[in-house]
Amino acid sequence: MILDYFLNQETDFSEYSKEVIDKAENSFLSFLEWTKNREVKPLFVEKSMVSEVELFGGTFDFYGLVDGEKTLVDFKTGNGIYQEYFYQLAGYDIILEEMGINIKRGMILNIPRTEDERFLVQSVDSLEREKKIFRNLLSIYWLEREVKDSVDKT
User: Can you tell me whether residue 128 is helix, strand or coil?
Assistant: First the structure.
């Protein structure tokens, strides 16, 4: 619903149960409450992109201006914000840098689905450490693929 909101399109609920729709509506209302005192202007929403240099890709939830600052946002639901979420943002930041775009901050919005969950926001002004971790994890991924490929050939 949030992505449809930014894309100015109607959400298709035809394949969802009433329970799922109710949770989505709760999340969406929480999100709208968060936007009330902010200027939120999307530049990319739900955009798939690829790093030609480092050979990985992903789909951004939101890149745009939040209160006038270039911000990369990932929307999550659940009970918390985990450090690994920022590694994902770091990957997106790497792709944006390849395009000549420098962000001002990265942000995770943990949006509640039910009454027992809380709306959480965590932001960072720099993803430099997370980009180092992401690149190391990517290196491990490629090394594991190389090992698997060599074992499969034997």
Answer: helix
β-strand partners of 63: 44, 72
End-to-end CA distance of the chain: 49
- For the cut 90, the answer to whether the pLDDT of residue 151 exceeds it is no
- Ramachandran category for residue 29: left, alpha or beta (phi over 0 → left; psi -120 to 50 → alpha): alpha
The percent of residues in the chain predicted with pLDDT above 90, rounded, is 82
Domain ranges of the chain: 2-152
8 Å CB contact between 78 and 35:
no
The token pair that represents 148 in the structure block: 């698997």
Q: Among 109, 92, 88, 112, which residue's Cα sits nearest to residue 101?
A: 92
Q: Stretch 21-47: mean pLDDT, rounded?
A: 92
